[in-house]
Amino acid sequence: MFFSTFFSLFFTGLTIHAFKFSTSYSSPLSSYFFGLGFILLIASPLGYAQSNEPQTLERYTVTAVRPYYDETLSNIFPQYEFDKRSLVTPLHTNDVLLQSPSISLNGQGGQIQSISIRGYSRWRIQTLLDGVPIVSDRRAGSSIGFIPPSFVSSVSVLPGAASTYFGSGALGGAVNLHMDAPQHSYVQGGYSSNQQMKTVSYAGNVENTDWNIAHRNANNGSDGKENSLFDQFEQTAFYLRHSPSSGIVKEAWTLYSDNNDIGKSSSDYPENRITAYPDNRHWLGKLAFAGGDFSGNVWWHQSRLETSVLRPSSRINNSENNAFDYGFDVKSDMAWQRWLVNFQLQVSGREGVVADEREFGLTALPFAFNGGSPIAKLAYEVRTLDASEINIAGIFDASRQYTKTSFAVGSRIDWQRQSDDAGVKSSVTAKNISAYAGANYQLSAYWNASLYFSSAFRNPTLTERFFAGETPRGTVLGNMSLDTEQALNTQATLAYRSEQLQGSVELFYQQIDNYIERLTVSEEILQYVNLDTATIKGASYQLNWQSKDARFDARISGAWIAGEDNLGNTVADIPPHNQRVDIGLNWSDVRFFTVLAYRASKTDVANGERALDSVFTVDFGAHWQVSERVQLQASWTNLTNQQYFTSADDRAAFAQGDSLQLAITYLL
User: Fold this and answer.
1) Which domains are present in the chain?
2) CA of 404: how far to CAs of 195, 341, 449, in Å?
3) Does the pLDDT of residue 105 top 50, yes or no?
4) Is 13's pLDDT higher than 50?
5) CA 552-556-561 angle, 5° bins
6) For residues 139-152, b (16+ Cβ closer than 10 Å) or e, as one string?
7) How far apart are CA 160 and CA 163, in angstroms?
8) Which residues contact residue 127 at a Cβ distance below 8 angstroms, ignoring those fewer than 6 apart?
9) Residue 46 has pLDDT above 60, yes or no
């Protein structure tokens, strides 16, 4: 009775809150998906039985159902996942991703900071949450900062051209976040000293239903020299998942995240420019179904981002971005002549992609900065973007084993239409084909070698085609005549796997044609244009070891990446070389861990970047299972209080100085 009442009230509250979101920004399809999601959630049977016996707080790894492309690609090169064993109360979900040698921070700091994969960033990489694409109209690309780190159990990283499976934008690869599935109900509290961040979360599981609720808030932190950073934030999020034991619906989940008063950590702060995000709101979900020979998914993502940019002694620009993304896919497979063949149809779209901008004179201070309403008239108010798009694709892949050799091939046929829905309506249509082929040869019982060739494409985004307005960098104009970026990728891998040791070395080379960049065309006016050709090449490695008794474990990893255009100029967003060592010790009920990370200097920089000095950082921490119900965690990050920039962006701020993280988990 208690759980029935709890869920009824909670669903009612969630529905009301989500309804407020959908009515503040709505479109016909968003209303339809809202109704569909609500009906599916209340129609799925919920179980309410739960044992009252105490349970040991277990160390466990959640193994999610792998996407079919993981199964196919694992035939030709290793697939890697990264968990949170070496993290305590992380400030950002990016901290989980940064364990991969292919991942680096990109752009400016704060909760909306983005990443790069092998030197590809912004709109050239795909970010997914349990298979749901996270799309952003910001030039910096999508950010996963709206997802509390406590919601995530592990992340998968797929570097390299991957448009066959993910479509436009996966030139550099993709990352997929796997959501935590708590085995028992627990509450957790955490603290981080640098920002005085406080976090509390409650997760639980009842029969086929699990949930996670989290609230975090943080003040401004400081760098290694005690200078203030503008990286404050407040976050409240809720995640609910139900997996029926029978029926065509296999899983349904939804996530709602409300983020407020987010600071953008930038070297412009506070003298030249103060950029804040008063509101960053997301509501998304997915329904997985299967019946007969077919399976598929329906998903949606509704988002809103408010941005406020103060230029002292000049002006204030406020903008609001809204979008509703949706998608559907259906898949089947068959065996043919010893080949395992998969077919998939994908339909996705974006509707109501809108950006509104307001400019105030210096005396018209809006609430975001002075706590009051504007005291002067607007200088102007304009809609800078009003667009939509629809995408349809057919995907095929096949794999097989022949004696010591595994083969895998795949292809995608893709059609897209983008529409400018403002003023005189216009549209642009694009057709693309991408493909890949790979082979893996077993050299011995422990060694494998593989070759992988793939193509990828990136259609210009709605922002690049149709946007016209103000940004923190200046006035930006879109370009309807932009060509699609095309890329060819070659990757060679040597892998080793035994009971205690697993590792791989990868060499990669990728060429991009019609590279799109934003260039200055006049004073403080920028426009998107196609450049000629760019190449990115490099090497990465990972090596994991664990002792026979599982008491010790270690991982070493690193990457060397270089990129230049056809004129020999350095390509933007190429990260410095990096090396990392993770060491763990399990002793009785305590796990100790340390992370040693080295980032090399960077002197070859592109326009909009700065040179970087080398830096060596040390993190140290421990997890202690105090009792059956209680676990304590503590870590000290940036132990030696190093002063360094988070990325090569010429407006990036310094990283946070040393910080103590604490967490306590109590099993209910």
Assistant:
1) 2-667 (2.40.170.20)
2) 54, 20, 11
3) yes
4) no
5) 170
6) bbbbbbbbbbbbbb
7) 9
8) 133, 134, 141, 142, 144, 174, 175, 177
9) no
What pLDDT is stored for residue 65 in this prediction? 62
**Cα–Cα dist 170/141, whole Å:** 12
What pLDDT digit, counting tens, does each position of 147-200 carry? 999 999 999 999 988 899 999 988 989 999 999 999 899 999 999 999 999 999
Assigned token pair, 624: 């202690």
* Residue 82, token pair as written in the block: 């990264």
CA–CA gap between residue 78 and residue 16 (Å, rounded): 45
Q: What is the C-alpha separation between 242 and 256, in angstroms, rounded?
A: 15
| The two three-digit tokens of residue 83, written as one number | 């968990």
Q: How far are the Cα atoms of 67, 233, 275, 279 from residue 262, in angstroms, in the given order?
A: 34, 4, 9, 8
Whole-number Å distance between alpha carbons of 233 and 523: 34
Output DSSP code: residue 460: P
Residue 660 is encoded by which pair of tokens? 């103590």
Looking at the DSSP assignment, which residues form a beta bridge with residue 315? Answer: 311, 361
Which residues fall within 8 angstroms of residue 194, CB to CB, at 6 or more apart?
Answer: 221, 222, 656, 657, 658, 659
* Beta-bridge mates of residue 353: 387
DSSP string spanning 444-458?
A: SSSEEEEEEEEEEEE
Residue 187 or residue 272, greater confidence: 187
Hunting for tokens 């020979």 — which residue is that?
A: 293
Residue 37 has pLDDT above 70, yes or no: no
Provide the residue count of the chain. 668
Q: In the numeric block, which tokens belong to residue 482?
A: 């932009």
